[in-house]
Amino acid sequence: MQFAGSHILSVSQFERADVEQLFTVADTMRPYAHRERMTRVLDGAILGSMFFEPSTRTRISFGSAFNLLGGEVRETTGFEHSAIAKGESLYDTARVLSGYSDIIVMRHPEDGSVSEFAAASRVPVINGGDGANEHPSQALLDLYTIRSELVGRERGSGWAAYCDGG
Fold this sequence. Notes:
This protein is an alpha/beta fold and 166 residues long. It has a single domain (11-163), classed as Aspartate/ornithine carbamoyltransferase (Rossmann fold, 3-Layer(aba) Sandwich), CATH 3.40.50.1370. Helix content is 43%, strand content 14%. It is built from 6 helices and 4 strands; from the N terminus they run αβαβαβαβαα. It has helices spanning 16-33, 57-68, 90-97, 113-120, 136-154, 157-163; strands at residues 46-51, 72-77, 103-108, 125-130. A 4-stranded parallel β-sheet has the order 2-1-3-4, sandwiched between helices. It starts with 15 loop residues before the first helix and ends with a helix.
């Protein structure tokens, strides 16, 4: 998978090699997450954080991670604080807000809404949960945690056995 410039909308878009590549990068990012090292790799970049349904952990974790890498976060929370409350479509909102952001993470209560938004966006969109449909970032985090725990116990064999159904 070509990650740069790609939307992350569903876990089904990832092959095993893609997941392993993501986890390798995540492993190298641990010192930054734990504030053992500093970087400004995202200096000047803007994350559009659009959460149209309640979220604390997902919204704050995306924003914190972006800030730790040197980027800025612009947030919209709830419908009442957006043009959608005045009847603007997801398509129009995507066209406008993607002009102000380098990447957007979105949570919305309706199934498929994040994919609809992404289709109109000029920048990559990450699905932070869309109704009862999917929350791929949470699924990837859960897999990463399982892998980390298994590899920590068995040094290398656990993750492969898990992926192969062992």
